[in-house]
Amino acid sequence: QNLAKIMEEMRANYEKITLKNQEELKTCVSRRQMQLLETELQSLVGNLRYGMQVEQYNGIILLRESKLKQLHADIQSQTLEYQALFNIKMELEAEIATYRRLLDGEEQESLWERP
């Protein structure tokens, strides 16, 4: 009976030790899983920040491309306006030259007519 009691106590101790080891193992595994999840979370947060920055930069690029298109349109419009004004200037200069020739011709005639 003494031996049975000792065996029972030993079995109870082994069960306690086994339960304690199982709990420690669960805690260790849980800690490791928690570390892995935290690492994954940090990676996901980093990816999210990167994605948000990319979206922000894409928005800036789109805005600048839009402004660039507008500038090209403005330059084209101003070029057409400049060309039209230049053509008018050339016509006016030709008219002025014609009037000068006419005036010079009249002056020459008046000089010939004076005795």
TrEMBL record:
Record GO biological process: intermediate filament cytoskeleton organization
Any Pfam family hit: Filament
Domain of life: Eukaryota
Domain IF rod: 1-110
Keyword field: Coiled coil, Intermediate filament, Keratin, Phosphoprotein
Cellular component, GO annotation: keratin filament
Residues spanning the membrane: none
GO MF annotations in UniProt: structural molecule activity
Similarity comment text for this entry: Belongs to the intermediate filament family.
Subunit structure and binding partners: Heterotetramer of two type I and two type II keratins. Keratin-18 associates with keratin-8.
Function: When phosphorylated, plays a role in filament reorganization.
Protein name: IF rod domain-containing protein
Native source species: Sinocyclocheilus grahami (Dianchi golden-line fish)
